[in-house]
Structure formats: C-alpha cells, structure tokens
Design brief:
single chain, 814 residues, mainly alpha, two-stranded antiparallel sheet, two-stranded antiparallel ribbon, 16 strands, 5% strand
Length: 814
C-alpha cells in the first residue's frame, strides 16, 4: 500500500523515495522533518509572505532532493539572480491552488511525524518495495548490502544477471569515445592562464553538461547546486568502492559516471571489474645536477647565440627561417590579436600583488615568464624567449602600484621596441623605465601609456594631472597673453607663428580625447580661445540663448545700453549683462551685485522671493532645510532631514519628552507646567496664539495696517468642487472668502498675513489672555487697568516676545 498516493499537487512520493533509506528510517525521517520545518513557517496563514527567502533557508532545503520543488507551489520562484522571490497573484485559480498545496503540505508534514512516532502502518514495507531510486542525498550502502544478501555468489551471479556489465571491447570503445570527447571539449575551452587545462577539469565540465542533459529542470538551480549533486554521487561511489586509490583522486569516479550516464550501479560495476587506469605512463628519470643558471648569467650567452644563428642570413628572412610553420603572429602583430590578449594584464597585476611583500627571486620571475609566454604565444603567436624573460624580470622589479594602470599597449610597445634578432643591451632597463615613470606633479608612478607629453617642451605628466591642469586653465583664458598657459603646466612658453597651427591642432585633438564626456569643458575652450584672439571691439551677446557676436561701432568705454543685432537683446556694452536703468550711476561690478537679489527675470531670485512669502526653514543650525508652507493641517512639523520638531509658522521648537535627544529638545523654562507633555512656546503673533480671534477682528487689524486682504485673497485659486482647494483639506469652501478656503483655512491664511507683515496682535487678545501673558513674562500690571492701558503696556514691554519671518537666502541652483 502506498500511503502517499493521495497527494496530487506536491511531490510527496519523490521526496520520500529519494531521501528515506530502508534500514535508516528513524534518522532519515528526523533529518527530513528538520529540513522541512522552515517551510511550515511560510505556509502559515497568519505569517506575512517574505519578499525573498534567505540563502541559509535555500541551502538547508537543497540538502534533500526534490524539497526545493515545494516552493513553487507557495508562490516562490527562482529569479535571474538566483534568489527565490515571492510572486503575488490576483488569480482566483492560482490562489486556490496555493491554498490546496498548503493543506497538502501540512498533511504531508503530519504524516512524517506519524512515521516518526510509528503510527503510520506499512511504511517500512512501502520503502522496501520502492524500486525507483534517483540520485539521492544518502549513501547506497544499504541497497548494496540488500543486493548482496539476495545474491550470495555475487561474482558468479553477476555476468548472468547484470545486463549493464560492459565486455572488453565495450570498455575499449568507451575509452576511445571518452578520449575523443575530452579532446574536442578541451580545445573549445580557452584557459585564463598558462598551459592546457587538466583532465580532471575537463571531466568535471563534462559531468556538469551531462547532468544538465539528463535533468533539464536542474538548470534553473545553477551550477553550484548541480556540482553538489555530482559530489554526492562521487561520495556514494567512494563509500561503496572497495579498491580506493587515494593517489588517483576523484578522476576515476568522474570517468565512471561519464561512461554510465550517471547510473550508480553500472559505475560501481565498472569500478569492481573493469577499473579505468588513468595514471599517465612514468617518464624516464634523467639525472640532473643542481641548477646554477641565473638571468644575469644567461643573458650574454643567449645574445651570442642569437648572433651566431643570424650570421650570413638576410635580415628580412631571418625571423621567418627561425619560425615554425604557422607561427606568423609574431611578425604581423595584428591590433585585433593584441586586443584579444588584454586578459593578460589582469593576470599580471594579480600575480604581482600576490607577491608584493616578497623580494624578487627566481621563483617569482619564473611564474611571470610562464604566464606571459604561454598566453602571448596562444593569442598572438610564438614569442622571443629572451625578450619575454627580460620583460618578466622588469615587471617584477617595478612597484605593484605602477602596474595598476598597466595596459596591453605598454607590453606591445616594449616588445616591439627592438627586433627579436637584435635585442638591445638596455632592453631590460628601458622596459623598467617604460613601466614606471614618475609624474612630477603628483609624484605617483605610471606606465608610459598613462603619461602625456607637452607639445613644445617635451615635459611629461600623468593623464589625471594633465586633465586637471587643462580643466582649470581653460577657464582662465581671456586674452592673448593667457594663451601661454596652455603650452605647459611647468612654464609659460611663447607660441611662435610657424608652430602655432600645429600646436593648436595637437592640443585640440588631446582635449577632444580627454574630455569626450565633458562637453562643457570643450565648449569653454573653443569660446575662450575665440575671445582671447578676437578684436577688443567684438562682444559676445549676453543672452544665454544667443551664440552671436557683434561689433561696437563706437570706440569708447562708457556704460551705455547696446542691442544685439541678431536677437535684439538689450545689454550693457561693457559687461554685456542684461540692461536695467538701475545700471546708470553704477559700475559694472556694482551692477552685478545688484542683479543678484533684484533681477526680475532670474528664476533663482523669483524662487527666493516666493519662499520668503511661502516657505519655512528648519531652526536647526546644522540643517537649515527649506520647505514650502501649505495652509491646513497641524502646525506641529517634523523636519525630514534631521527630525527636529518645530512650529510651521514661527519656527518655535516643540519640546517632546519622548524624543529629547534631537537638538537637546528639553524645555528651558524651569517653571514650565507643560514640561512632561509635547508643547511649544510660540511667538505671541503666531497663528497658534491668535487663532481664537474672530475673522472680522483679524480683517480689521490687517486693514488698519494697510494690508489689502481682498487683493491677497484673489491671488489664491478658487475651489472647483465641493472641497477646500487646500491640499489634504476635505472641508467645504466658504462664501466669506469667495470659495478660496474653508473657514478654518481662511482664518489660518489671515493669521499668516499678520505674521508675514510683522503686525502687533495685541488688539486680538482678550483681556484675561493679555493679563496672563503679562504674568508669564514676569511683568507687573495694575489690577484695574483698562484695555487701552494693557495694549499700550504690551507695546512697550512685550514686543520682545514677537517673532519675525526669517529671510531665506537665495537658492543657488546647481
């Protein structure tokens, strides 16, 4: 009887058959319950769905076969980054399927617990009768023992019962087929460094591809999970292999799995009866004495040998006579081939950094030589052994910091600096100089490809310093004398007429190369170059949208209005700034200062004026964030930048006993009765202090101080529906303000006019509130004083408690 045949959605049978061993049921059930325990958390109805599952959770599930397949039933899918993310759905069918899968999993988990308690009948018999065994997470030692019990004479019984045993010809054919496959696969792999890849690496790659072919669904789990499955298969074979040879490693198991297409039983039969011999034949021993050759000793004999080889040989044909057939890359040096060798630079830098703390010795030079020679010979063609050896020594001598900027062009230039037949005696010293040149500005060392040469004088500096120098110098070019600064970073040189054309062509090409992504620098160069070489009477139009120049017909230096003939822009003929009559009587410098705060066409000026009437500033001196004030809502505001709490109108701090760490927000008044509650001590002309006044009283006060309420009101938009036009306010608009506010927002608008115009609000205070204000301020008041006396006294003694709107500085747009 199959106790798991009733499951229709989750793969309960596959999980049980792949992870439970017949003779180890209790411990395997415990392990499976432990792995599936986290799944019970994500299937709980009261638990929120995580957006993605933790890698530890996935790793735990992957330790048992087929358990990862459960996640798709609960809405978790594998994305391109290898993470399991939750996919929400509105489909009723999908929601029902997930609910049914959740119920099935809960039943499955309860069945496992019943098996652990021994209350599920016939489970052991079901496991013994299961025949299909896919690649599992446990050892097949028990299955092997059962087969041995059923076949007492396994050696005699084997040939008659096993149809998978290959005969001698099959083994030979399998060896030949595998060797051909490995050979062709090997040639398709491009090694990163040095020689050909090892056979173990090739077999491992073949196993990976073979597994993907046999189990296409495994591709979505990634190579790491597949590698773990391959390791499990190898461990199973090693556990059952009675003739293990530690010296061979795992290659013999790789070979058997490849031949049998991941059939463990057939692979085990090959190991027992026709074990592959993968050991290479022993090489004949050649007696050798101790090596005493060094680079210094070998240089002179090698140079002499090269001279003897090329004696009485035509110079043009000598290299070809020394080359084997097909090795033409060393002669051609195709640019495309050199670009394909850029990975060598990365390998050189990593190797140099690996031995950065050690002194240069023969071991390091040998490694560097093998790296460069093998890779260049593979990509470019056969290389000169002596030049590569000298280059390797130079790369080991220079500092690793210099090699961080190494490029393939440096290696190419060094190798091509002399022919293979006549290597210059200073080749190594010149290579070291080319690989490590010191910049006189920043004192850092760079390869030759990172150094720039000045056209007229030959001074050199690094690319970064050259860019920085010219980026700043271009902005200083205003007259012909300033053009000398473009000649050199070290000295200003005269630009002779006979080299002027070549100089500016060279400089222009360099600037285009350096500032390809900085068009503003290039535009400034061309504009300033024109300004420096133009006639003094030629002016550039001050209109930012006009690129024209015009000629002043009068030859005077007066401050008068001039008009561009192309765009009709009115400007000063001296400074070319936009003309206003206020320029009369001001110098150009004074006029420039006046325009900063008064230009009516400057959006920055208009923004500042707007914020001074409809803006608020955070009172935290270290923050000073600016926000737009909008009527409506609570006046208690929290800065989004520094979390300071303050009043939106007068910027008075709110003292919050629960958050008193920001700006030391503790009430400074020792006798304050509100110290344990959220409160603020606002200015006496703030909306929070005068909001109890009547609307008519507020309008009268504003009118008496020459504020046109009607004009101010008409600047606000009228309501288009049945709600107040103030954002977030749901109240009905009031006819008293022409449907431009609701009653509450209208009063707030009027009180804000009092604050903005710095009007004293004493006439709005009731007598008892005014007396209480005197008491809080510590001012003595005669008991029977009239209201007129109280207001007069308030004007004399309480003006210090009034606030003024803070002027917002001009907003400089970047």
């Amino acid at each position: 009887m199959n106790p798991f045949s009733t499951y229709r959605i989750i793969n309960a049978e596959e999980i049980i058959e792949a992870n439970i061993r017949p003779n180890h049921i209790p411990e395997d059930i415990n392990g499976l319950l432990n792995v599936l325990l986290p799944v019970t958390y994500i299937t709980r109805g009261d638990s929120p769905r995580a957006s993605s599952l933790h890698s530890n959770f996935i790793q735990k599930l992957s330790s048992k076969l087929h358990t990862l397949d459960l996640l798709k039933h609960f809405g978790y899918e594998l994305d391109r980054k290898g993470n399991y993310t939750y996919r929400s759905t509105d489909s009723n069918r999908e929601i029902t399927l997930r609910e049914n899968a959740t119920n099935e999993f809960k039943n499955f988990y309860n069945d496992l617990r019943r098996i652990k308690e021994g209350s599920l009948d016939d489970f052991a018999e079901y496991i013994r009768n299961s025949r299909e065994r896919p690649l599992s997470a446990y050892s097949d030692r028990d299955a092997d023992e059962e087969q041995q019990q059923q076949r007492p004479n396994s050696s005699s019984n084997f040939r008659s019962q096993s149809s998978l045993l290959p005969n001698s010809s099959t083994v030979t054919a399998g060896n030949e087929k595998t060797s051909e496959t490995i050979k062709s696969f090997k040639e398709s792999i491009v090694p990163r460094h040095a020689g050909r890849p090892a056979h173990s690496f090739i077999r491992r790659k073949l196993l990976l591809l073979l597994y993907k072919q046999n189990y296409p669904h495994s591709i979505e789990f990634g190579d790491e999970v597949i590698d773990e499955q391959i390791d499990q298969c190898v461990r199973q074979l090693k556990q059952r292999d009675r003739g293990q040879d530690v010296s061979c490693g795992d290659e013999v198991y790789f070979e058997c799995l490849i031949r049998t297409n991941f059939d463990n039983e057939a692979a085990l039969d090959i190991l027992r009866h026709n074990r592959p011999n993968l050991k290479p034949p022993p090489e004949p021993e050649t007696p050798r004495g101790p090596t005493t050759t060094t680079i210094a000793r070998s240089m002179h004999p090698l140079q002499q040998q090269w001279k003897l080889l090329n004696k009485d040989t035509d110079e043009n044909t000598a290299p070809q006579l020394l080359l084997h057939e097909g090795d033409v890359g060393i002669i051609l040096y195709h640019n495309k081939e050199w670009k394909n060798a850029t990975h060598i630079v990365t390998a050189i830098i990593k190797l140099r950094q690996q031995y950065n703390t050690r002194e240069v010795d023969e071991h390091i030079v040998s490694k560097m030589y093998r790296l460069i020679y093998s890779e260049l010979s593979n990509v470019i063609g056969r290389q000169s052994v002596l030049k590569i050896e000298l280059l390797a020594y130079a790369l080991c001598k220079v500092s690793s910091n210099s090699l961080e900027h190494l490029s393939m062009a440096d290696i190419k230039d060094i190798l091509r600096s002399s022919s293979d037949t006549e290597i210059h005696e200073n080749f190594q010293d010149n290579a070291i100089k080319s690989l490590s040149m010191e910049c006189p500005i920043c004192a850092e060392s760079y390869p030759r490809s990172r150094m720039e040469t000045m056209f007229l004088c030959g001074h050199m500096c690094c690319l970064t310093c050259a860019r920085d120098y010219y980026r700043g110098t271009i902005q200083q070019i205003r007259d012909p004398q300033a053009l000398k600064k473009l000649t050199c970073y070290q000295e200003e040189l005269e630009i002779a007429d006979d080299v002027k054309l070549n100089f500016f062509q060279y400089l222009g090409s360099k600037l285009n190369q350096w500032f390809t992504d900085e068009r503003l620098v290039l535009d400034a160069y061309h504009e300033n170059l024109f300004l420096a070489t133009r006639d003094s009477q030629i002016k550039k139009c001050g209109n930012s949208r006009c690129t024209s120049f015009f000629n002043l017909h009068n030859n005077n230096n007066r401050i008068v209005r001039a008009q561009c003939p192309h765009c009709q822009f009115q400007q000063c003929q001296q400074c070319c700034r936009k003309w206003f009559d206020e320029h009369n009587g001001m110098s150009c410098e004074q006029y420039a200062e006046w325009l900063i705060d008064n230009d009516p066409d400057d959006p920055e000026v208009q923004l500042t004026k707007y914020l001074n009437t409809a803006g608020m500033v955070c009172p935290n001196d270290r923050c000073k964030a600016i926000y737009e004030y909008k009527p409506g809502g609570c006046e208690h505001f929290t800065c989004k930048q520094c979390r300071t709490e303050f009043c939106r109108i007068c910027s008075a701090l709110f003292y919050n006993p629960e958050h008193n760490t920001v700006m030391n927000m503790v009430c400074p008044r020792a006798d304050c009765s509100l110290k344990r509650t959220l409160h603020a001590h606002c200015c006496l002309n703030c909306y929070r202090e005068i909001r109890d006044a009547q609307v008519d009283e507020i309008i009268t006060l504003l009118t008496n101080h020459n504020v046109n309420v009607t004009e101010e009101l008409r600047q606000k938009p009228a309501a288009t529906g049945l709600e107040c036009p103030v954002e977030g306010c749901k109240n009905a608009p009031s006819m008293a303000c022409e449907n431009r506010f609701c009653e509450r927002c209208y009063k707030e608008f009027l009180c804000l006019l009092i604050w903005r115009n710095e009007i004293e609000p004493w006439e709005l205070y009731p007598d008892h509130n005014l007396r209480q204000t005197f008491t809080n301020a510590g001012v003595a008041v005669v008991e029977n004083s009239t209201r007129e006396v109280l207001i007069q006294l308030a004007r004399q003694r309480l003006t210090q408690f009034l606030g003024k709107p803070k002027k917002i500085p001009r907003i400089r747009q970047q």
